Structures are given as C-alpha cells and as structure tokens.
Amino acid sequence: MKKAVFKTNINCGGCVATVTPFLEKANTVKNWEVDTDSKEKKLTVTGENLDKSEVISLVKEAGFEIKEKKSLFGF
Hints:
A 4-stranded antiparallel beta sheet has the order 2-3-1-4, covered by helices on one side. It is α+β, with helices and mostly antiparallel strands. The protein has 2 helices and 4 strands, in the order E-H-E-E-H-E. Strand 2 and strand 3 form a beta hairpin. It is globular.
C-alpha cells in the first residue's frame, strides 16, 4: 500500500464535502482523510497503485490548493 501526504487549503467540513466526490472518483485512491486541525491541512491518501498526479489534479479540479509534502529525507 502506497501512502502520500499533501499540504492543502481544505480547512473545514464543507471543504471536505466539496472535495469528496472528486477523490471518490480516483481509481488509485483506496482511503483518504484531511486533518483540518493541522496547520498544513494535511491530506493523507493511500492506495495500491497510488497516482499522486491524479490526486493533485482532482483536488485542483475541486477548487483547492494542493502541494505534495516531502518528508524530512526527501522521499
């Protein structure tokens, strides 16, 4: 299972509701969640064949900003 973490501006329940139908149509996403309490509004996504570009595209299509969060070691 692959995992990716992104910084977003998805900051409330309404925003989560807006992005939900977009992320649900992603073929490579099995589970996802947004930590709206964190400063970076972290979106965590998991899936077997996770396609990060698909996630980024869908979140932008929903009208939100998204940027992949790199780990401390760059991977």
